[in-house]
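Worked example 4.2. Below are the chains of a multi-component assembly; read each line carefully before continuing.
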Amino acid sequence: MEIKSILKELTKENGASGYEHNVSQILANHLRKYCDDVQVDKLGSVIGRKKGSNPSRKILITAHYDEIGLLVTSIDKEGFIRFTKIGGIDPKILLATEVVIHGKNSIPGVIGAKPPHLLSPEDRNKTMGLQDLYIDTGMNYEEITQYVSIGDYITFKPVSLELKSNYFSSKALDNRCSFASMLVALEELKNLKHECDIYFAATVQEEIGLTGGITVSYNIDPDMAIVVDVCHGDMPDVPKEVTFPCGKGPAIAVGPVLNKKFTNKLIDKAKYENIKYQIDVEPGGTGTEAWATQVSRCGIPTVLISIPLRYMHTAVETLNITDLTETGKLIARFAASLTDEDFEKKEEIPAWICKF
Amino acid sequence: MYELLNRLTQTFGVSGNEEPIRELIINEIKDKVDEIKTDALGNLIALKKGNADAQNHKKFMIAAHMDEIGVIATHIDDKGYIRFSNIGGVSPYTSIGQKVEFKNGITGVVSYEQKLDDIKNLKLSKMYIDIGTKSREETEKFVKIGDTACFCGSFVKQGDFAISKAMDNRAGCAVATEVINILSKTGTDNDIYFVFTVQEELGLRGAKTAAYQIMPDYAIAVDVTRTGDTPESHIMEVKLGEGPAIKIKDSSILCHPAVKSLLEAAAKRANIPYQYEILEGGGTDVGAIHTTGGGVPSGAVSIPTRYIHSPTEMISLKDLENAAKLVAEAVR
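Applying the procedure described above to all two chains together yields the following structure tokens:
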């Protein structure tokens, strides 16, 4: 499995939150190589099922596949485009980036702003806000309005870079890298027996409100869920408590909103299999789909595994490939190890609580 | 009732670690209810059966969250000091000089970096817990990262007032328990589901899954609310000792008029003093319950409480007893 070429393929296509359709078939094709059945649901989440030997239990593994982006809000008389955000983007990182506008055609553009030479001394020390930035496509108003209209979405120009020491950089690694780790897991599972049915779900619209995570966990109604996402990698001048060194393995989340029993089993499994891992203390909301899956329906025991990622929500998100492959290995071995006895006794909602 | 409240407030139950408080409540109510169960998330659900043949037989859900705010260890330094984060709303200022207790009984002191130039810049990230150890290795014998601790605040009864940690929301748990006691004597036409919920302080999480299972006809939350009767406080009509408060709105819900009227009528019928609550900031379990499924008409009875989210939360015991009487009268 050539993981770097898969990452390139996955991050190259554009799929901002709500506009994931260009990516969904690529993911579905990958899943079809391994799964017994694959479907794209009504909102666009891609779900593959790998049947187990004793399918009385369902494990759901989710990784969102939407990426952050921008949205055209107006086009001025000279043809410059103003925009707003889809998901969390710091305007500071936008200046001088290359983007693609997804109108009738895909139109390349650059994000510009008033140059420092022409700024007043007071303004020179201020950071640029969204209102100061615009996209230049080279086209004038008449030309551009033939291709682009208000409401079209915009993504970073896809450029992936293989860095030294097994590091890799691209846009959209949040969270296509987690999908890649699922493929690693599926590859591993070829050689592992597993009792439970395992659902691999690539979900939509996480960046704008966990939408796919909410609907997929409701539809599949699993016995437990494993959410795979990214966490902040180590960077200069950032406190150690909020970052995780790249190359030291996935971060396993512990905290009040995660299931203790399965989290402990996951940690034990990592130790047993000699897979490097780190502990990620989450005091409240995790900012991931785990927040939604845990309270779906009657409550779903949920664990969270994160891949350390530097420069999150930029066009140059950077990770160490080892963390991705280790994550895949851990998910596969953990999911394969779960048997009926690891779950709470299976019971319907008792009739005295509800008869529906 | 205060003896029960004493035990409830002093038992450990930080959000996500509600096991000890749940055990206590199970022991308290199991012989007085018809059914009892702990669900997947840890909510305790108990049913007091009504008379299915009664006219207008309804299904009520009474929700009282049993979790309390606290802290979680995030990092242990070389000298053994523990860095921490908050579980639920924890103010750095009220945390200074407090004692915290981990689930295993280990007690620590909360203090802050002495180099801090201005107390206005105090953040939890500049604070630490000292358990009196000398090294990381020694601390790790007692506390590991991810462990949670509650604030210490002993129970004091003084006249009608009681002070303790975790009045939010063991006061509500005491009320729900007392409602069970009252209904055991009076009986009830309606089916009453008592839910002691988990993870309210993290965003009304337990209530959501519990309501999904029960899908009641009506829901009533029993929780604490702020007051406007302390020096230079925010403007709020609720006062300590003036009776339980019938919630009109908070930031999580605008209460359903049917439930509000039901509570008003019950208070008048049983001659129970009450006041109205409009809480500008903060929410409670019915905020999650009322949008569950196709919607659940919901309201709340609140216990006026001063100094919420501090180790010295203060309530009136009279309000507490009246809250129980009010809820019991309204639902039975």
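Take a moment to check your reading of the output against the notes. The radius of gyration of chain B is 20 Å. Chain B has a mean pLDDT of 96.
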